[in-house]
Amino acid sequence: MPRPSPRGGRRRRVAPSLAFAAIIAAADAQAQTAQPAGDPPPASAATPATGEVRIPAMTLLPPVNATALRNARRLTDTPATVDVIPGAEIDRQMARNLADVFRYTPGVSVNRQTSGTDPFRSLGGITIRGVGGNRVLTLVDGFRTIERITDNTRDVVDPWNLQRVEVVRGPGSVLYGSDALGGVVNFITRNPEDLIAPGEIWGGEASTSFASVDNSLQSRLTVAARAEQVSAMFSYQRRDASEPSRNNSRSPDGIWNCTRNLSAGATPCNRFDPLDIAADNYFARIVYDPLPNLRLRFTADVLQRVTDVDQRFDLGPATGGVTNLSYARTQDISRGLFAADAEWRPELGWLDQVRVMVGYQPQEIERTGTRYRRLANGQVQRVADSLTYSEDVLQGEVQLSSSFNLAGTRHALTYGVSASTTATDYRREDVTTNLSTNVTTVARAGGFNFANADTRRLDAFLQDEIALFGGRLTLVPGARLSTTRIAPRPDGDYRASPGAAPRTLDESNVSLGFGAIWRLDETWSLYGNYGEGFKMPTAEQLFTSLPGTTFNLVPNPDLRPEQVRSYEAGIRVQLPNAYASLGVFRAEYTDFIQSLVQVPGTVDYTSRNISEVTMQGVELAGAWRFLPEWRLQGSASWQEGRQRATPGAAETPFDGARPLNLAAGVTWDNPALRTSVTLNGTYAAAVTETSSSQLYQPKAYQVFDLLASWRPLPNVELNGGIFNILDTRYLGLPAGVTYARSEFTTDATKSTNPIELQVAPGRNFRVGLKVTW
Question: What residue spans carry the region label Disordered (predicted)?
Fold first, then answer.
């Protein structure tokens, strides 16, 4: 895969400079042929960058999603809670990462916890309704992304070339199989027609933006063309960034205070280690329409992100008389997607549509580091460490749609099969060299060593949308049969614990779902949904093994899949200029897998199905265009959860639940001035219940952002944003991330993971420029 250019010292900005030059050139060329400022495009024209079609000024329609039911449906025709984030909004926000994408989506958060063990500021995963990590299925155009392991990350998606992001809240295993326990997130990429205006044969865009919080500069150049039955696009994007500034951080007091050896060059407790990020994305797509009812697509999507860290927080004296001198670390993330898909509308009467997709997705995360330290005897030692985790996924799917009338009812069947194979590999090596004696030792299979594995999934699914009483009532039953085989493939580095050799896990699961929509009239409707979900154990949970003298990591091939039953109901209203949805949910999770549980009476640690969790909450979303140029939009989420660590144990609050979270905004759009301004506010209530009184409880906060967009020419767009306008100091701990007072009793712990690094950025800004043609 292409790799960002190596950097010596600070990052290089060659690629962004070239993209910026292209923007200026394009703007100059377009300015010579641009329409006068007062002439808007034709009313029927689609905006190439967004795909929007102009509609009457006061009309406000609920969003369309294609993930919840595997077919395009408006929110009001979907018996589930779905969030749709348009790519145009993501670009307007100049989003740098997934945390920015979900900034205004209460109930959905992105975990990030910067510590000494993960100084790369990686995102841990997306959390939906208090459940996150590998329990949320993350897709790119329907293809699975990598799982997270204990000593690595899942941060393999950047918000680039997106047409939209769809979030289905609640279990989605009926239509998507394993891992859709807490929900489904589908990142849907753009097509050439999203960039080419009607009647034109080519189009494109060039954009650049800067964010002050981490000095990031990201630039993108995209071109698209079509000729008769073929259209194609290519996009390149580059992002460079450094460590974030924490202008509101201070060295914490009391139990949370940490001390570092500043005289030895250590980073202060309220600052991040020096960091450089260089990310490249290459995206290409060819669309071929050989027949009016047949479309073929071929996609190549490659992401490469390299993060270099000068780890300085632990410089100076350490335990055992050792002095840490330096530690340079690198994280190299690569994700590729090479896919083909077809959509055929055969018009056979009984068969409406056939969709076929097949793709290969190699994904790898490599962490390397070189540490120098002085031993108690004065000798200097060098330790070169490397950890590589990879998943190579081959995935295919066939989906068919049929519609027919039966006994006065209308049916829309969606059915098909999906299959995938995943090769999982874990490699770790530590090479220690005494530079005084030139003696080198090599240690392999350290850390959370587990056997490599091959996972095979083969599923069949069926869903029926049944319309009764002239369409006033829609029932949506569904079922899925899932079969999974996870077979260990240990290499020469795998160290099996005595009497606990890994063995193959074969598992089958039936997931059921049932939804309903009752349209009271043209305005009001009720909906309800029952869904089941399951999550298969990971290869790490099944096959972790590391025998030792003081403890043993022991595999557990008898782990059961995690399960959930979810109940949801709500009411919706749709008016010509407004829509709203209010829903309540309850989810009952069982057989949660907890890692590294000590077996009583032994020194063995293993993974076990021991915990159960109950989550319930209320969710609200809507928008109202109260004047032709003014719009209100907002959403809210309130959650409460209980957990039981072991059967018979007392219930305690579930730390993944979050109390009231609210995001609301007012937008002013003036087409005549080509100007749009949005004021957004977010509010989070204080956490008052935790599973232990020793845990830190984040306080309430409210933050305001101002976003503006202006088109001085029809094809030139200037974007700007001021975030955290009031410079509010708040601790943005993600759901499920906890700080325990009992863990902050030693200087080593405080120094490694200071709570102050979780303080959110103070006032910061972003500016951007985009040119389309």
Answer: 29-48
